[in-house]
Amino acid sequence: MHLQLILVLICATRHTLTKSIQNTTSSDEELLQSRLELLETKIASLENESKTQPVLFYAIVNSRSFTLNTDSTIVFETVVINEGDHYNKYDGVFVAPQDGIYMFSWTVSTIHSNWVMTELVVEDRVISSTGEKAVDSSVYSSASMTAICRVKRTNTPLSE
């Protein structure tokens, strides 16, 4: 008789534990499922982001002497670094591979010139400019600029 009482007590205890573990509602399950889907989406987004190619180029003008016309594109024909291959050394045009915020920095130097002005142009819109007017043409004159702008991925090139 003592043995039967122990079995009943174990069964009652086991039933209570099972009930407390499974004591969730369908709205709790839906919330957990929703949160799990959101986390999976964010993880997939981060994984895709890490697979994108870097975008970086560094190019210089190797020629010591050349003449530019007004509103012409400066072609930095000697490419030192072109990660992602988005800068074209033949026409001086950079095409953004994806929407984002980009930073551009450039320096120009001149001698035997009365003025030097450069502009960063994105989709026919001047983003930034630098230079000097009324320069003493017998000395070197330099101008530098760094510009940060939002660029959309399009077929329209970015030119300087």
Automatic annotation (TrEMBL):
<keyword id="KW-0964">Secreted</keyword>
<feature type="domain" description="C1q">
    <location>
        <begin position="50"/>
        <end position="160"/>
    </location>
</feature>
<keyword id="KW-0732">Signal</keyword>
<dbReference type="InterPro" id="IPR008983">
    <property type="entry name" value="Tumour_necrosis_fac-like_dom"/>
</dbReference>
<protein>
    <recommendedName>
        <fullName>C1q domain-containing protein</fullName>
    </recommendedName>
</protein>
<dbReference type="InterPro" id="IPR050822">
    <property type="entry name" value="Cerebellin_Synaptic_Org"/>
</dbReference>
<feature type="signal peptide">
    <location>
        <begin position="1"/>
        <end position="18"/>
    </location>
</feature>
<dbReference type="GO" id="GO:0005576">
    <property type="term" value="C:extracellular region"/>
</dbReference>
<dbReference type="Pfam" id="PF00386">
    <property type="entry name" value="C1q"/>
</dbReference>
<dbReference type="InterPro" id="IPR001073">
    <property type="entry name" value="C1q_dom"/>
</dbReference>
